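Query structure, 489 tokens:
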């Protein structure tokens, strides 16, 4: 009896030990003024929707993250504006040490595949479209681009080959890295092709229009997808969605449809939602299709343009996947669209005045003679612009108390006219409003940028029709902005 009780106590102790000492990712950071550790799980499926989690470093600069993974994952750790890539496996402990050595940032790993994880820090993969632009030159042949790209791939993979040979990393880790690198460069190569195909779809009067796609580029396009197919194993690649999106839209719905004589309805602002959503269904099935359609609705809704077509797609998604795990991530975004549509249907307030067109900024500013004006240059498609509207209630109180005018200049084109007016209502933008004509937009680019492009949001301070501050602080700066404006009262 005593022996049985002793064995039972040992079993209970072991079970408790397993609970207390659950597998963890432990991160220690030294010499950082930032006490927060941001952990982002990269990948596709539900992992994409998990969002970033933030942990507070303790007094020793340490944070512990429970490793409850059911499949391997790539994780991005961020602290003090610096990020590190970490490969974490289910049921494994891993320790990461980040600090400075001889004034330079140092990174050390302890645990499974530590040498490979340290090597990961030498790989830099910018967004695949940016990378594609680095390979293409006006006279680049496909053979030359592939030669340079192959050299880059070899440079990245060769050190991992060496670690695999000596057993410093396991085959699963190597396979994950190899898949990630291969599919990254496959998406880059496909982008090189479709960026040139895009030029053939422009209006013939456009200065960059091309009558046809180069033969060597065209021949390569299907080969990319044959060599690196869009299957379940490819979903470990963090940018898998974009790879699948480009394949669905640029390659199938546009290029192949044109080539086969089936491109009867070009993409436009109204039909692009259904065409893309249905396009995924033509090329994918099962859990992969569910993810791609959910991701499409999510990413479009995150642009905060509140298109009613997304509500229609969401209803279709619910009918196809009534018990989908993605619903909890999509539902709040759909509520935002409903709210927007309801608010946008209301008439403009008396303190939301639409101004007549102006050809130049000087002409526009002259309308505010003897006034101090705070100018917000924005657009309906600009996320950072709209994020600043959160601080408008306090700004409006300050401006009203000091008899300062508010002028919103929308950089939108005519096709966004209705949406521009709807957003004025939805965000309760009180003040004067004008949407730029082509001539006004060009004049603004000439006056405040390089004449070729522009970056927004941008804020100005105008007094008596003259610009006195070309880079004013933004609403989020609150008291600092108010103090800046007070100087000109």
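Result returned for the query:
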């Amino acid at each position: 009896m005593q022996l049985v009780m002793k064995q039972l106590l040992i079993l209970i102790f072991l079970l408790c030990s397993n609970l207390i000492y659950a597998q963890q990712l432990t991160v220690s950071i030294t010499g950082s003024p930032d006490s927060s550790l941001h952990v982002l799980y990269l990948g596709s499926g539900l992992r994409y929707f998990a969002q970033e989690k933030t942990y507070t470093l303790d007094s020793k600069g340490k944070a512990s993250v429970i490793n409850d993974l059911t499949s391997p994952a790539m994780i991005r750790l961020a602290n003090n504006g610096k990020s590190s890539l970490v490969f974490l496996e289910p049921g494994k402990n891993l320790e990461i040490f980040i600090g400075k050595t001889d004034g330079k940032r140092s990174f050390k790993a302890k645990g499974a595949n530590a040498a490979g994880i340290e090597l990961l820090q030498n790989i830099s993969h910018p967004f695949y479209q940016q990378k594609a632009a680095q390979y293409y030159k006006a006279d680049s042949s496909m053979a030359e681009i592939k030669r340079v790209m192959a050299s880059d791939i070899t440079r990245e993979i060769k050190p991992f080959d060496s670690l695999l040979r000596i057993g410093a990393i396991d085959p699963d880790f190597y396979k994950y890295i190899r898949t990630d690198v291969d599919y990254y460069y496959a998406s880059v190569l496909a982008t090189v092709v479709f960026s040139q195909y895009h030029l053939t779809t422009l209006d013939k009067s456009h200065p960059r229009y091309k009558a046809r796609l180069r033969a060597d580029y065209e021949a390569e396009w299907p080969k990319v997808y044959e060599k690196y197919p869009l299957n379940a194993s490819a979903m470990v690649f963090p940018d898998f969605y974009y790879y699948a999106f480009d394949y669905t839209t640029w390659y199938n719905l546009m290029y192949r449809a044109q080539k086969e004589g089936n491109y009867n309805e070009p993409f436009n602002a109204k039909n692009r939602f259904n065409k893309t959503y249905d396009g995924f269904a033509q090329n994918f099935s099962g859990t992969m299709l569910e993810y791609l359609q959910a991701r499409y609705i999510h990413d479009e809704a995150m642009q905060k343009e509140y298109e009613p077509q997304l509500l229609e797609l969401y209803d279709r998604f619910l009918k196809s996947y009534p018990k989908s795990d993605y619903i909890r991530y999509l539902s709040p975004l759909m509520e935002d669209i409903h709210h927007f549509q309801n608010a946008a249907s209301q008439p403009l307030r008396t303190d939301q005045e639409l101004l007549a067109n102006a050809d130049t900024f000087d002409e526009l500013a002259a309308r505010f003679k003897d006034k101090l004006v705070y100018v917000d240059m924005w657009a309906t498609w600009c996320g950072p612009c709209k994020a600043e509207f959160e601080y408008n209630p306090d700004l409006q109180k300050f401006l009203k108390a000091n008899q300062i005018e508010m002028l919103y200049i929308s950089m939108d084109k005519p096709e966004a006219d209705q949406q521009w007016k709807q957003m004025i209502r939805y965000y309760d933008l009180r003040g004067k409003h004008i949407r730029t004509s082509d001539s006004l937009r060009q004049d603004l680019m000439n006056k405040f940028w390089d004449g070729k492009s522009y970056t927004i949001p941008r804020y100005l301070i105008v007094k008596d029709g003259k610009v006195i501050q070309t880079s004013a602080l933004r609403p989020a700066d609150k008291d600092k902005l108010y103090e800046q404006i007070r100087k000109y009262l």
